[in-house]
């Protein structure tokens, strides 16, 4: 256990935090009297997300999606990024 005064703790805070992370306990004192003890925080447990929280809350109308807007569809098909020939060239 290392004991340092407040002024030294303010000056060397990064170093003291590194020592605590390495497992050392640091006590900060005022006029030689211990007032604060620095210890490492326990890591928070991992929380995993649950899938399917919104299952069944949305309706998908495939016919409406397939109909689309002809003008927009044409813009996509004539795009620079879209291949002009759907068959890959060998």
User: What is the terminal separation in angstroms?
Assistant: 71 Å
Strand order of the largest sheet: 1-2-3
Estimate the mean pLDDT confidence: 84
Uncertain runs are none
Order of helices and strands: EHHEEHH
Work out the helix count: 4
Secondary-structure blueprint:
Layout: E1 2-5, H1 6-11, H2 13-21, E2 26-30, E3 33-38, H3 62-67, H4 70-77
Give structural notes.
The chain is built from four helices and three strands; from the N terminus they run E-H-H-E-E-H-H. The chain is an alpha+beta fold. It is elongated and about 80 Å long.
Summary tags:
90 residues; alpha+beta; three-stranded mixed β-sheet; 4 helices
Concise structural overview:
The protein has 90 residues and is α+β, with helices and mostly antiparallel strands. Helix content is 32%, strand content 17%.
């Amino acid at each position: 256990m290392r004991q340092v005064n407040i002024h030294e703790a303010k000056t060397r805070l990064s170093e003291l935090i590194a020592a605590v992370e390495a497992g050392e306990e640091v006590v900060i004192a005022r006029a030689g009297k211990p007032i604060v003890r620095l210890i490492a925080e326990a890591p928070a447990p991992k929380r995993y997300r649950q899938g399917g929280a919104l299952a069944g809350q949305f309706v998908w109308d495939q016919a409406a999606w397939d109909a689309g807007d002809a003008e927009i569809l044409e813009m996509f098909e004539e795009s620079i990024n879209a291949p002009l020939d759907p068959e890959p060239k060998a």
